[in-house]
Predict the 3D structure of the following.
Amino acid sequence: MRMLVAAALLITSSAAISPAAISSAAMADEVDDAHKLAITGRDAYWNCLAREYPRDSNKALSDQEFSSLIANVCPSERQNFRVSLIDFLSLQFPKQDADANLTTANRAIDLAQKDIVTAFTRRRAAAK
């Protein structure tokens, strides 16, 4: 009788654990997929910015004009990166405030733009 009760408890407890384990694995897969989308969005945005960098029409621009140009190019890639990064952050850090995730995404975009402008500025300075 004790063996029957112990077996029933074991089956019941393992059945209760399985959905949680499955849920945890599914959540990990969802976070991993969101991370991949955020990286894809980042790469698409960076590649778009990089295509703007060497254009002949930009050679006559001042640093400030180029900075303004970069801030306004690639709107769909920029928005896709922002949304995919926010989605990833909200899954990775579910207790984080949504405004903090938006701030982080916007900061990542600002840093990408700053890197392209810095490269442009250094290239112009080296050419002089």
In short: Confidence is low (pLDDT under 50) at residues 4-22.
